[in-house]
Design goal:
Blueprint: H1 4-16, H2 20-62, H3 66-73, H4 76-140, H5 146-195, H6 198-203, H7 212-224, H8 250-306
Helix pairs in contact: 1-4, 1-8, 2-4, 2-5, 2-8, 4-8, 5-7, 5-8
């Protein structure tokens, strides 16, 4: 039989296989940058949330309820309006600043993606060559050969390691989404409590309001990934303003503090995922090299059989 097509693919693979490492390493860099961007996204989202918070507060202050009528009599209403306007101004400034930061992070990612485009094309070509030569060799080589069997087993072992890494990464991604779901529920609760003090008054002083959605998300996250660290509930109330001048009740402040602890858990997940992704990058490079070795060995045996 003619091995011309096999020989051509063998040489093509040898000439292009050098792109595998830089392509996969750049993909890892992109993932790292995407993870680094998430806290910046969160910061921007919080700034937008505080705009909503202050806007809602201004609407409430401008509505003539009995509560505000009393404040008007005591000259407190205008002071509250001025404070809310100043808070809204700070929140808008913060949103503009964080939006700029988000764009800077996007630009970093885009730069690496552009750099990796050429590698991406060559890498896809390399994968296609490997698929094509595997098909040809599968039909050209029959029988059992110890060296081929050993290499085949090595490939399966590497694939198994890769599958384990992907499973962990997938679980960590799911846990992150659950933590973000809990965080969003807590933020909604804070905004709800600020818009109306009725719920806090009904619950009574010293009580803690914790949204069921947030609780369910946290419970599911721990079931999904038991290694997820725990965190202590906030116990100390510090009456201080945030970066827009807003003050929060003990119940609201408690939820803010829990959100900060959730952000620490998200960071932990990111670090765990990056460690797995770094290992997976090397595994994929090892897998590609082993597949080439496997195919080169099969081609060698075919060549020897023809001589």
């Amino acid at each position: 039989m003619s091995t011309e097509a096999i020989d051509q693919l063998i040489h093509a693979i040898a000439n292009i296989s050098h792109v595998e490492r830089p392509y996969l390493e750049n993909q890892l860099v992109i993932k790292k940058l995407e993870i680094a961007k998430e806290p910046v996204d969160q910061e921007h989202h919080e700034a937008l949330s505080k705009i909503t918070m202050w806007e809602s507060e201004l609407v409430s202050l401008n509505s003539w309820t009995f509560q505000w009528a009393v404040m008007k009599i005591t000259c407190g209403l205008q002071a509250e309006k001025d404070r809310a306007k100043e808070g809204l101004k700070k929140a808008n400034t913060l949103a503009a600043e964080t939006e700029k930061k988000v764009q800077e992070e996007k630009d970093k990612i885009h730069d690496v993606e552009i750099k990796n485009e050429k590698y991406s094309v060559d890498y896809r070509t390399l994968q296609k060559y490997r698929e094509d030569i595997s098909v040809l060799l599968d039909s050209a080589l029959t029988g059992s050969f110890p060296s081929v069997q050993t290499l085949s087993e090595n490939i399966e072992e590497i694939k198994k390691k890769s599958a384990e890494k992907f499973e962990k990464i997938s679980k960590l991604d799911k846990v992150k989404e659950l933590l973000k779901g809990a965080d969003f529920a807590l933020l909604e609760a804070i905004l709800e409590l600020r818009q109306s003090s009725v719920k806090e008054h009904l619950m009574g002083e010293g009580k803690v309001y914790f949204p069921q959605v947030a609780y369910d998300c946290l419970t599911q996250a721990r079931e999904e990934y038991p290694e997820l660290p725990g965190f202590k509930s906030p116990t100390e109330y510090v009456n201080e303003a945030d970066n827009t001048g807003a003050y929060y009740s003990p119940m609201q402040k408690y939820l803010w503090d829990v959100r900060r602890r959730l952000s620490e858990l998200v960071l932990w997940c990111d670090n765990e995922a990056l460690a797995q992704l770094t290992d997976e990058t090397e595994i994929q490079i090892e897998l590609g090299s082993k597949i080439d070795e496997y195919n080169f060995e099969r081609r060698r045996i075919i060549k020897e059989g023809l001589n």
